[in-house]
Amino acid sequence: MVTKLTSQDLKAVSAIHQAELPGILSEFGTEFLEKFYRESLHIPELFTFIEKEDEQVIGLITGTTSLDGLYFKVVKRDILGFFSLIMKHLITHPASIFKIIRILTYPGFSNKDSELLTIAVSRRYQKRGIGRKLFASAVKEFKKRKIIHFKIGVYERLKANGFYRKIGCRKLHTFNFLGEQMNYYVYRQP
Ligand SMILES: CC(C)(COP(=O)(O)OP(=O)(O)OC[C@H]1O[C@@H](n2cnc3c(N)ncnc32)[C@H](O)[C@@H]1OP(=O)(O)O)[C@@H](O)C(=O)NCCC(=O)NCCS
Question: Which part of the chain is the N-acetyltransferase domain (predicted)?
Fold first, then answer.
């Protein structure tokens, strides 16, 4: 059953995020992700739904009604806490600083678009309709919040492009993000 994320499931959600969604947030580690999802519970424009089977989290989806300053709003809730986790990562991965700067200065993060930020299903539960179910719950939530269309950014290299096309998303354009091709899709409420 799809439910809203609560503080009890932060560890499980972070573990799935790290295993299935390679990227800078995952590189910071599960402690960082756990903190990110914990603070996100207090940001009204953000929502995360999870799917459970036998009491175990097997998938998640996160969306926002506005991307504008979103990551800063999350980090602002505990600047020192996030700072110390990022510093811990930078000690072992100093080159990540360039990635962080490029992300922080990326102009796309200051637009007011609604966006689907993450969707991930545990590997052994994929291709069983769970992604579709999670996506439907996000569509419903966006509708409840009077959002008629939302965007999704997907690296070209990810198989998830096939998933988005299959569930009715339309490719808008592609652009270069941190040296990689990123596809932007849009989903419009039927
Ligand atoms: C993308 C993802 C969430 C899909 O979840 P899922 O539970 O496997 O998807 P579903 O089983 O609900 O599939 C829904 C439809 O999409 C299709 N589909 C799923 N993955 C696909 C793929 N890689 N390529 C093409 N079609 C795909 C399914 O065949 C199904 O179509 P059907 O209903 O006509 O049979 C999952 O593969 C995943 O977690 N991937 C890793 C994380 C990731 O890349 N997330 C996206 C980051 S932007």
Answer: 1-190
Residue 73 is inside which H or E element, if any? helix 70-76
Distances (CA, A) of 27 to 157, 178, 183: 18, 15, 22
Taking the domains of the chain in order of start, what are their residue ranges?
A: 2-146
The pTM of the full predicted model, rounded to 2 decimals, is 0.94
Q: Is 121 a pocket residue for ligand 1 (Cβ < 6 Å)?
A: yes
Could you confirm whether domain 2-146 is CATH 2.160.20? Answer: no
Find the mean pLDDT for residues 91-102: 86
Using most ligand atoms within 8 A of CB, pick from 2, 50, 118, 127 the residue to mutate for ligand 1: 127
Ligand 1 near 158 CB (within 6 A): yes
